[in-house]
Design a protein that fits this description.
Shape: globular
Number of helices: 24
Strand order of the largest sheet: 1-2
Radius of gyration: 23 Å
Largest sheet: 2 strands, antiparallel
Helix content: over 70%
Distance between the termini: 93 Å
Number of strands: 2
Structural class: mainly alpha
Strand content: under 5%
Length: 456
Amino acid sequence: MKQDIFGQMNSLTRADSAEAWDGVLLGFMAHAAITPQHLAKVLELEPGFALGHAVKGLFTVLLGRRELLPVAAEALATAEAAMKAHPISPRERHYVDALRLWLAGNPTQSVQNFEAVLREHPEDTLAMKLSHATRFVLGDPDGMRRSIERVMPAYAPDHAGRGYLLGCHAFALEETGAYEKAEIAGRQALWMVSDDAWGLHAVAHVHDMTGNAAQGLEWLAGREAAWAHCNNFRYHVWWHKALMHLDLGQIDQVLELYDAEVRKDKTDDYRDISNGTSLLMRLELEGVDVGNRWEEMADLSAARTEDGCLIFADLHYLLALTGDNREDATAKMLQRIHRDAKLANDDTTRRMADPGVEAALGLEAFGDGLYGQAFDHLLAARGSMQLAGGSHAQRDVFERITIDSGLRAGRLDAVERILDDRRAKRAGGEDNYALARRELITTARGEDDAQSVPAE
């Protein structure tokens, strides 16, 4: 038995494998690109380490890729065989059970296994982060915050995971509207652990939600080292920077960041595609010609029409397909979402049904220029879009499409209500996108009033 860097006992037997396991734990907290190499070393040195195989499977399902599910299933089978060969602790068993439930389509029950670990071992930072990550995918910010705040008293100032815990707390605070507390927690997290990209990006979210793009750029400036070590999460931080430039109307900087950083590597990870497609759509809503950039996004997304792992991913694939007018692939995606929605028998397919179907129909209609239909469908999906997962900032692209659909369809009063609700969720702050749309409403109403005045 060995003790990991967060004070938890595990069934490893070698000092070198225990050291590599600590690399896995710290790497996962920091979104480090090197994490898989640490895990591969652990499993090479101790192939009977059930917890290691379970974590490999959990990391895999979090990638949201249909073709990788057999890899996760193999990891589960190996973990279960290892459990039979060598007894493991109840704590380690919960991780195996969590993977089994996720593969059965029930990540909400996986979360309960992480929470069961935290009830007995509140200082287990691995369980904390996995619960946080899973709730993020499920669109459960209140649960993220409750989970973290339950375990915070167990973290002494010198606990190796305390900085990462604060980074997660910062993000949960931001997603639940506690912006001032979130900024304080995020800054403290980065002060404690300089590689906490999650905490750094939580502060970027605060600036996004409060309409302070200039302050957001100041926050990120000179802190590139905090996300340079990351896996593809680094593209997402650059995406945040691009959003800030977009809000300030600095289009050249946005396009430069898109090409040089956001899409530096032409990956087909759904998170990278969501960065790219949502940024391109925001640009087009501002009247910017994005050139042929949709083509690359659509080529990748056309290969994902049958994926169906996450509605969040599918909707971003649809953005690319409609953005590049790929009618056949769009039809295939819609057919598959409808097919999955009819099942509605697990967490994934229930989200395909709601908000998936209405949101997908709205995106298709918007791409076809049918703005009234688009607005009706997107408005129907709007109340449950939280369930699609992701962050407020990520889902805001769908909010913007809804607003612009309504404007183009002349639904001014309804759009104004959405803008008012959007402002309330941002603690009264408004970005330049919203201010510009309010100006459009005012102008349109003025023109309507002028037309209604009888001629003398």
